[in-house]
Amino acid sequence: MPILQVNAWAAFYGSVVGFALMIINGVSFKLPSSPTFWLSLGFLSLFGTVIAFFTYYSLLKNIGAEKASYAIVLFPLVAMIISTIFEGFEWHTHTYMGLTALLLGNFLVVAPKRWFQYRKKQKLAFQE
Q1: Which terminal Cβ of the chain has fewer Cβ within 10 Å, N or C?
Q2: Is 28 left (phi over 0), alpha (psi -120 to 50) or beta?
Q3: Per the confidence metrics, is the pTM higher than 0.70?
Q4: Which of 107, 3, 119 is nearest to 55 (CA)?
């Protein structure tokens, strides 16, 4: 499938569903006029959507879904580190618990399957 077209259709469908939910819930829609809003929207649209999805779909195509999913698992960790550096995010007990669950889950996914296989004990000659 062509990556850019898939990305465009996904964004279109997401917009249609979002707009429909907005109408169903009676939410008004008004765009801010501040330059900061438009610059951040442009930045997120380009880098956070177009380039990010293009990169991810390329990764999917080149290495497969199983290996590409390992990278996505680490997104929350990267987001917390960036937020800590630029926004002053403070780490608390629940942050460390979530990070531990994230890393343990990633470890369980990437660990060799032979580590988790049940091994039957072999009977020795004198045990028969």
Answers
A1: C
A2: beta
A3: no
A4: 3
